[in-house]
Amino acid sequence: MIVKIPSQVDSVLQILTRNEFDACVVGGCVRDSLLGKAPTDWDVATSALPEETMRVLDGFSIIKTGLKHGTVTVLSDGMPIEVTTYRVDGAYSDGRRPDEVTFTGLLTEDLSRRDFTVNAMAYRRTGGLVDRFGGRDDLKQKTIRCVGNPDIRFREDGLRILRALRFASVLDFTIDSETAESLNRNRTMLDGIARERICSEFTKLLCGPGAERILREYRSVIEEFIPEIGASFDFPQNNPHHIYDVWEHTIRSVAAAPPDPTLRLTMLLHDLGKPFCYSEDRSGIGHFYGHPEISGKMADVILKRLRYSRKMIGTVALLVRKHDLSLSGGEKILRRRLNRLGEDDLRMLIEVRRADTLAKSLKDQEKLPLLENIREMFETIIREKQCYSLRNLAVNGADLIDAGVPEGAEVGRLLTLLLDAVIEGKCANQREALLDYVKAERGKLDDGAHCTSAGTGL
Ligand code: ATP
Ligand code: MG
Question: Does 119 contact ligand 1 (Cβ within 6 A)?
């Protein structure tokens, strides 16, 4: 069997068919099964109307997810399964979702409303694969192709333009030439699409194995919703560290980063400020002073517009601003950076630096072993639970007060001083050593006070 239907899904299909309805699994789960990948979720399509589905499946918990569009979610042995009535979509006057849907008893009609041939296949538990639009061939050819006329399909729903790029990136497929020409031609359709829908498809695109190629070949489509990238296209760097223009460097750095949304977004945005900071010195070498800050501001604006979460915006904008921060100088510097950035962000910053370096000149890449040393040093600090913040300093304010420090600002000043000494390796993070350090420090102060008063007395 080419599609291995899990038992939770099979029991839903069985009940529907036992009740004389047609039912099958459809879309992404069929596509992924044929590719030999484990599907993330299973969608069921059926000739049963939503009320009929709910009636025959009344033994299950059911959530009325989108009754108007024919969808209910069935909880089968802990697995949520979307069960949707076969439907044909009405007109798309807003270019986003159908104004109305019409239910149909025919699977083929339901398949014909789907976006791409590879997403328009169904599988019945008894009758096998239903592939009316050549999806299986396109999977073999690694091709994304619209079901039907691409111009019509993209004008019905502009999001499909970005979905085509998303699937091409995630599956590492090429886009059929007719579909590709059409999506370029119709790219302004993306202007009317809800930013949240763009955000979700775009994030998947960025994390796919084909991201670099798609960002290169379809940059004008991406520019439609991130116009800020346009200034980087073909912008020469004239700098010995770089062998690519700003956009080419950017997309290579995206691909060099691990497939994680935060890191890939950071790489996409990290140099966007460069074209606005360009200067040349006397020998004609290009510089981009201040670009991390400008890029950070741009990242903030872009990610807000695309409705990313506040946490994501905060982290990405920070990583962009700090992407050139020096990490060399041994454990002391790393403890300082840890104090400022915290463990998670510094670990990501090391990844950012690596991806950035991998997209630079070969000479720069020779520095990668140094970065690996930095990473190891960083992991050692974490593993050994070395102290880099007041939280893990072996004394606190109360300890200092017990040791005779007067309450108030002096406590804070001494704690900062102790932390600094520990970070610099001048004092061990041990209670006794720290209290001795305080004593010596206060002694110095007293001496200083005597000197001063002696001085003024003269
Ligand atoms: P994933 O593995 O990312 O979930 P998927 O193929 O399941 O991939 P979904 O976005 O979950 O993608 O959509 C499920 C199915 O619904 C698709 O396979 C496709 O058949 C259909 N579909 C989704 N969005 C659209 C759309 N905008 N236009 C036409 N058909 C769509
Ligand atoms: Mg899905």
Answer: yes
CA of 28 to the centre of ligand 2 (A): 5
For residues 126 and 18, the answer to whether their CB atoms sit within 8 Å is no
The yes-or-no verdict on residue 456 having pLDDT over 70 is no
- Among 281, 292, 309, 428, smallest CA distance to 353 is for 292
Mean pLDDT of the region 215-234: 98
**Residue 33 C-alpha to ligand 1 middle, in angstroms?**
15
Q: Enter the tokens of residue 394.
A: 């072996």
CATH 1.10.3210 location in the chain: 230-386
Q: What is the pLDDT of residues 92-110, one digit of tens each?
A: 666 556 778 899 999 999 9
CA atoms within 13 A on the CB side of 98: 15
Ligand 1 atom with minimal separation from the 170 CA? 3
> Of the ligands numbered here, which is closest to the C-alpha atom of 115?
1
CATH 1.10.246.80 positions along the chain are: 390-457
Q: What's the CA-to-centroid distance between 41 and ligand 2, angstroms?
A: 6
Does the beta carbon of 131 lie inside 6 Å of ligand 1? no
Q: How far apart are CA 424 and CA 335, in angstroms?
A: 8
Domain 230-386 CATH class label: mainly alpha
Q: Which of 230, 215, 209, 152 is nearest to 185 (CA)?
A: 152
142-225 maps to CATH 1.10.110.30: yes
Q: What value, to the nearest 5°, has the Cα angle with vertex 210 and ends 320 and 288?
A: 30
**CATH number, domain 390-457:** 1.10.246.80
pLDDT digits (tens, 9 = 90+) for 306-362: 999 999 999 999 999 999 999 999 999 999 999 999 999 999 999 999 999 999 999
Rounded to an integer, what distance in angstroms lies between the CA atom of residue 87 and that of residue 112?
A: 10
Question: Under CATH, which number does the domain 1-133 receive?
Answer: 3.30.460.10
List the one residue out of 110, 97, 111, 120 whose CA is nearest residue 28.
120
Q: For 119, which DSSP code?
A: G
For the stretch 2-46, pLDDT in tens is 899 999 999 999 999 999 999 999 999 999 999 999 999 999 999
What band does 72 get if pLDDT is binned at 50, 70 and 90?
Answer: very high
Residues 323 and 335: their CA atoms lie apart, in Å, by 17
Q: Please tell me the residue having the least CA distance from ligand 1 atom 28.
A: 115
Q: Which of 215, 209, 224 is nearest to 169 (CA)?
A: 209
Query: Is the CB of 27 within 6 Å of ligand 1?
Result: yes
Strand 101-103 versus strand 122-124 pairing type: unpaired
Query: Is the minimum distance from the CB of 156 to ligand 1 under 6 angstroms?
Result: no
The amino acid sitting at 177 is S
Instruction: State which ligand 1 atom lies nearest to the alpha carbon of 31.
Output: 6
- Classify 150 as helix, strand or coil: helix
